[in-house]
Amino acid sequence: MPAAACENPGMMQNNFYSGAGVDRAGPLRPDTDWVQSRVASPDARVLPIWREKSLITFANGSQDEPRMAWITVAEAMALSNGKPNIILLGERDGTSFFAVDLSHLDNPADVPVLAQGSFVGLRDVGGLLDRADGALLAYAKGLIHWHERHPFCSRCGSPSEIRDAGHVRVCTNPACKASHFPRTDPAVIMLVYMGERCVLAHNRRNPQKMYSTLAGFVEPGESLEEAVAREVEEEVGIRVGTVRYHSSQPWPFPGNIMLGFHAEAVSTDIVVQESELVEARWFEKEEILNADKYGLRLSRPESISRRLIDDWMHNRV
Ligand SMILES: [Zn+2]
């Protein structure tokens, strides 16, 4: 990987998958008349999700130029088995954007209106998309995933139904009526460093030999700083001192927000947690800068992991 790939001209930008640029219209979502007016809007766009994948077209037939694709409300309704589950994402430049789950279709390629593109995993094209569109697709994917996984009330087990244009599910049991809101589970992700060295790891879940920062879920009853310290010690046996917040990234794979930190190590011996990691070790800045020469593959450019590495490389800690 050339050294230039480690530079981050977008330092002041939001992380990828954020910055969709939509007005989510939270106060208006419970107003069914207003929602209906948006649904009826002639230029409304619906982003279809099929089994966790997004509808993507490729400009000029090039795999390097993926574009967000959409269908109309009428088309989405016609494909929804008479049970429209169209969810409002928000308004952007006067256009209403919705999402719809079409996972019930056996083969979407057989549906003419969907044959304009193909359903692709967001991570397979993510970094090549327009940033705002990538964020909108991430938002759609996260919300659809939550609906798909929460058809029943977690309190009494009765079916729940969509309200507020898809931003609430309400239990249909009259004795319960519990409201359930979309979940985003927090995970911490951290670059551990000491002076001019940092710790990168090859995670067991990653089939390719890619080195990235450490990460883990926040547990109930702990602060983010405590979660960082615990995860680092569990995964590589290193103790950390100062923990500084960096930035965050929506991560709808399937329903997380990554909270990024730089964590200064106060010990150096690595003991790898083998259930999670294949390998972890200290890397010199020079190795990362000349990653190509060393055959070192780093986290994907659109990931917060990569941004944490890049900003540390350029002393933005
Ligand atoms: Zn209930």
Sheet/helix structural class: alpha+beta
- Run of helices and strands: HEEEHEEEHHEEEEEEEHEEEHHH
Number of helices: 8
The number of distinct β-strands equals 16
Low-confidence segments: 1-11
What's the multimeric state?
single chain
Q: What is the CA-CA span between the terminal residues?
A: 23 Å
Fraction of residues in helix: 10-25%
Computed CA radius of gyration, to the nearest angstrom: 22 Å
Q: Name the bound molecules.
A: zinc ion
Largest sheet: 7 strands, mixed
Short note summarizing the structure:
This protein has helices at residues 32-39, 73-78, 122-125, 131-149, 224-236, 285-289, 291-294, 304-313; strands at 45-50, 53-58, 66-68, 87-92, 95-101, 118-120, 160-163, 168-171, 179-180, 185-194, 197-203, 211-212, 214-217, 240-251, 256-265, 277-284. The chain has 317 residues and is an alpha+beta fold. The strands form three sheets. Strands 10, 11, 12, 13, 14, 15 and 16 form a seven-stranded mixed sheet that branches. Strands 1, 2, 3, 4, 5 and 6 form a six-stranded mixed sheet that branches.
